[in-house]
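Researcher: Next entry: SEC14 like lipid binding 1 (Scophthalmus maximus).
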Amino acid sequence: MVQKYQSPVRVYKHPFELVMAAYERRFPTCHLIPMFVASDVMEEETSEDGANQRIERRCALDVDAPRLLKRIAGVDYVYFIQKNTMNRKERTLHIESHNETFSNRVIIHETCCYSVHPENEEWTCFEQTASLDIKSFFGFESTVEKIAMKQYASSINKGKEIIEYYLKELQDEGITHVPRWTSSSCSLPPPRPTSLCTSPPEPPKLVVTPVVAIPLPANAKDNKLDADYIKRYLGDLTPLQESCLIRLRKWLQETHKGKIPKDEHILRFLRARDFNIDKAREFLCQSLTWRKQHQVDYLLEKWSSPQVLQDYYTGGWHHHDRDGRPLYILRLGQMDTKGLVRALGEESLLRHVLSINEEGLRRCEENTKVFGRPISCWTCLVDLEGLNMRHLWRPGVKALLRIIEVVEANYPETLGRLLILRAPRVFPVLWTLVSPFIDENTRKKFLIYAGNDYQGPGGLVDYIDKEIIPDFLGGECMCEVPEGGLVPKSMYRTAEEVETEDIRLWTETIYQSASIFKGAPHELLIEIIDASSVITWDFDVCKGDVVFNIYHSKRAPQPPRKDASGLIDKSWTLGQDYSMVESPLTCKEGESVQGSHITRWPGFYILQWKFHNMAACSATNLPRVDDVLATLQVSSHKCKVMYYTEVLGSEDFRTLPSLGNSVNPTFSLQSAPVLSLTTPSSSSFLHSVFFL
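Model: Predicted structure:
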């Protein structure tokens, strides 16, 4: 595989001629580059007017490689051919070099260019590109590649330091200016290269006229990145990391037809793929396609969060941490996750989460300017007071994990630190279950405090200034994050609204709806292969009253005929052909039901919702008044439910001790949930805590 390198534009705040005088002092040897042993001039050519000069050198390098490898290769030094082309009129120096040693096995090619700064003629720019292609090397190809990249990265780091060293040396000698080439200097003999003189001739000393410093813009006319800009706005990157950023950015400019993402956003995708440019490019392109398809770039301008989110979503931005990162606070323990999912649906929740991330990117960019240093991620503070098992309501968690898939695919490397406060007693159990799925680098971002431990030394004040600690955490700063509470069921969406929901950012919803008529139940067939599997369900009765049953049969029901009322054949006998494994559960309109059943036998299980016939009074055999009124409210003898089911392996099922094996007829948000270890991805817990 060919390794490539592209440098950013490095700027010397000195005139071109003075930089060239410093550059020539690197030859024939340079004590600042220990591996640069010697160089000999092979050929030299100068134009009559002295404006153009070409020098070809043969340079010897003592590469820092294992002695065994040198013995196998049979060489002590590696030789390179360097060709320098100076144009004093245009004020440019082009350098090309390639390896002479092992040229049939390894191909190394490098080009460099010194030129005048495009917006300040008293400054000099330097750019560098290189490629390495190892065809074969006695079976040590991988080793040679690592050595070459290490040596090259080291020399790149020293490159600017060396020029600055010789510029200072010139200054110490009193040389602060070198005259430019002019046509009148044609009669003068061209200056000989410094490397061929025992002592370089001293140029005339002239007074330097002060110039106004004009920094190279981040996006200059030629769309090149300045090294100082990278350090100021993107952070300290290694030369190879800078190269990956520049190459990926250049590729986007040449091939991508849409909006080019900002440099810090490109850098996040590179970091997420350990600066593997091919993987980062694929990752980024998928995200750019997604952003264009769903107009995410205009989300903050065109989308406004529904009122229910403004009232019940217990999260919001709150100043910044000690590192200048934007601070997002989430009072997870006070949030009604189920109510928000039921009232809004996954689409609105997803858009709200995306708007949080888009706002986070905007705040990072703003803080970078305010604090004068790169800030590319934010800090999240999660208050778990009030957290209980209702927050692990399985359909809600599953919806959130699907939101997380979208977020992880499009906002990598945006969470810098996660502060978890007032973790309840149930949290250590949950953490023990989830932590094996979280990689070590992600765990380093977690700081967990139980009870009031966050108030002591090493607590919250180490990461957030005391003046901005929220009042609900014992601080004095008023926090505008909503206090939350239960979302009224009157705000829940109806089945019809779910069915007519706009196009989603994913393809389907986790809920299904079913209509139930008198004499025509809705039945769901589930085949169980392994005994002790767990069938879980969650459903809401949207209209009418229903009876919920679970049956088991060893044989598969035949597909229902057009005139049949369900999966259970009328010829079947209860207790012989099939059996009831749970007692019937009557569910009233507006109720929510969650539960689970641990199967005892393999075979076929039938979940049935049927129309509830009103019961007669035992004494008079007449219907009760309440049932008659309820019947009048149900038009056409039709009921409607929204349901979600899932089958788990027994090893993946966890439940509270108080939760039995039967249906759990609880209807409020305090209902006991079902927790599966198969659902979360490696970092899903982190994101599920962060987003909802």
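Model: Note for the record: The radius of gyration is 36 Å.
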